[in-house]
């Protein structure tokens, strides 16, 4: 207990713990944001951090990959070109299935979003790298942008009729005051659930990997094999989750877009 | 009670939310397998829905985990 209290005292003191808390490596240490180029703009801290660095790396990777893979434009694609075409087709089908052909106008947005989140998640799986999507402020900014854009789109497309989205059809009038409130609340929690889903998945996975990594060290050469084997399996699962969360993020964006465009329940 | 102890107990209680995620994920995969074995030809078309359901069910449990982490590291 004393050890834990000491760890809490350290936490409360604002210190980052230097990577260790009570003998075990601190699993939260990996999420620490470090300033690489300190910068202050109009009283705001606008430093170039490791988070920003990894976003730049991801954007550069996606751009280079798209340009380099498609430079041949061969009728019979090379291996790299088919990867680019596969990812294009994958997202295009997702948009077509969920929003319909009217939604293909927004395909570039969904494709960018999917690739950005996917590459950030995958970069996070590289040891000693930084997972940008494990910070709620990043995912919440993305989700809030989607939410605002989709809501504005709904009002632009349907005008004031978009408010009918919150009134379910075929229910008794007496129930309506309650149901409308519930619908509005469920609509307003969309950005929260969208961002927390991605953030919690990435953070929980990486924390768990680090905790089991500490078990390997703590159990030593003889006992460390069991958690090590678990970690290998879990890394595979984490790569699946990294893809899955990017997919879910994109598909939910499609579903919200569909709600705004077609107002179906 | 010692506040530090109460904090740890609270965090532990909050992570019970993951029980629900476990039940939900089990139900989704179980029902998918059941449906897929009855009608294997329709199974691949429902695979995206399976993944979507899995991610949605897992996320609700992770909300509980987030509450636990907030209790541990924010207060």
Question: Can you walk me through this structure?
Answer:
The complex is a heterodimer of chains A (265) and B (75). Helix content of chain A is 67%, strand content 5%. Chain A has 265 residues and is mainly α. The radius of gyration of chain A is 23 Å and the shape is globular. Residues 1-21 of chain A have low confidence and may be disordered. With 75 residues, chain B is mainly alpha-helical. Chain B has a single domain (3-73), classed as Up-down Bundle (F1FO ATP Synthase). The interface between A and B is medium-sized, with 20 and 18 residues.
Helix content range of chain A: 55-70%
- CA radius of gyration of chain A is 23 Å
Number of domains of chain B: 1
Q: Biggest sheet of chain A: strands side by side, in what order?
A: 1-2
- DSSP summary: helix tally of chain A: 8
- Detail the poorly predicted runs of chain B: none
Short descriptors:
heterodimer; A: 265 residues; mainly alpha; two-stranded antiparallel ribbon; two-stranded antiparallel sheet; 8 helices; 5% strand; globular; disordered N terminus; B: 75 residues; F1FO ATP Synthase; 3 helices; 0% strand; elongated
Helix-strand layout with pairing:
The complex is a heterodimer of chains A (265) and B (75).
Chain A lengths: L1 H11 L7 E2 L2 E2 L9 E3 L2 E2 L2 E2 L2 E2 H20 L9 H21 L7 H18 L11 H23 L17 H13 L1 H34 L1 H38 L3
Antiparallel strand pairs in A: 1-2, 3-6, 4-5
Helix pairs in contact in A: 2-4, 3-4, 3-8, 4-8, 5-7, 5-8, 7-8
Chain B lengths: L2 H12 L2 H22 L8 H27 L2
Q: Short description, anyone?
A:
The complex is a heterodimer of chains A (265) and B (75). Chain A has helices at residues 2-12, 50-69, 79-99, 107-124, 136-158, 176-188, 190-223, 225-262; strands at 20-21, 24-25, 35-37, 40-41, 44-45, 48-49. Chain A is mostly helical and 265 residues long.
